[in-house]
Design goal:
Distance between the termini: 22 Å
Radius of gyration: 12 Å
Oligomer: single chain
Helix content: 25-40%
Strand content: 15-25%
Number of domains: 1
Mean pLDDT: 77
Length: 82
């Protein structure tokens, strides 16, 4: 996953550019969402399918299947400087 795959003006932090996310990097991403009042959760499937990322706030949720979409949403809600 590289920054050229993302929408214009959106870039992943250096720690999130690899295909595999470490627990420490995931915790950092969760903290960035928490600073904006959102909760980030990762749903592990029971089969070999992809993980689903869920971002929630005020009883509403957004679902993502790719980490770069989660990062783009974080940037969209103002978390790029968090």
């Amino acid at each position: 996953m590289i920054n050229s795959d993302l929408p214009s003006g959106v870039s992943l932090p250096v720690n999130f550019q690899s295909a595999e996310i470490t627990p420490q990097n995931y915790a950092t991403l969760q903290a960035r969402f928490a600073m904006l009042g959102h909760v980030l959760q990762r749903n592990f499937p029971t089969d070999d399918g992809p993980s689903t990322y869920i971002v929630e706030r005020w009883g509403q949720a957004r679902y993502f299947t790719h980490l770069h979409d989660v990062a783009a949403f974080l940037s969209q809600i103002g978390g790029s400087n968090a």
